[in-house]
Amino acid sequence: MAEVLKLEVVTPEKYVISEDVEIVMAPGTLGEFGVLSGHTPFLTSLKPGRINYKDSTGKENLIFVSGGFSEVLPDRVTILAESAERRQEIDIDRARAALERAQKRLAQEKADNINFDRAKIAMYRAIERIKIAETQGL
Questions:
Q1: 17 and 72 inside one domain
Q2: In terms of pTM, does the model score above 0.70?
Q3: Same-domain status, 35 and 101
Q4: Per DSSP, what are the bridge partners of residue 50?
Q5: Which of the residues 26, 47, 81, 93 has an alpha carbon 20 to 30 A from that of 69?
């Protein structure tokens, strides 16, 4: 059996997860990173994307995070996220509607009231949520 570490994903509203895991993969702003028990401590910011982890039974799980921060310690990974959803909690119809809205905003060439950076981020978040929700076998 592999050594375990504690994974905690927390948003301002709730604890999304607090359990023992074998490995955590997360979307750091400087690139994806992986953590096993005994990892060197570090802090990093997160970009929107997926947290992929294996629980203590070896089952793979996915969580969407919209960004935030991660603290890695030898026995613990704490993720403070703006928002987070387990794969099974993602409302795929809502995510598809958000993607459509973002694409429409980006398609407007000369709109003075459109924040294109914000629309691109919204589109990326929606795409990631859809990919995670459509993942099979987890």
A1: yes
A2: yes
A3: no
A4: 64
A5: 93
- Amino acid identity at 34: G
pLDDT of residue 113: 64
Pair 83, 20 in one domain: yes
Per the listing, tokens 């948003």 go with 11
How many domains are contained in the chain?
Answer: 2
- Listed in order, strand segments (DSSP E) in the chain are 5-10, 15-28, 31-36, 42-46, 49-55, 60-65, 68-73, 76-81, 84-86
Q: Phi and psi dihedrals of 40, rounded to 5? A: -65, 135
Same domain? 80 vs 94: no
What is the C-alpha to C-alpha distance for residues 94 and 82, in angstroms, rounded to an integer? 18
Q: What is the pLDDT of residues 40-67, one digit of tens each?
A: 999 999 999 999 999 988 899 999 998 9
CB 28, CB 45: distance < 8 Å: yes
For residue 102, the surrounding DSSP H or E stretch is helix 92-107
**Distance between CA atoms of residues 47 and 76, nearest Å:** 20
31: helix, strand or coil? strand
Whether residue 54 sits in one domain with residue 31: yes
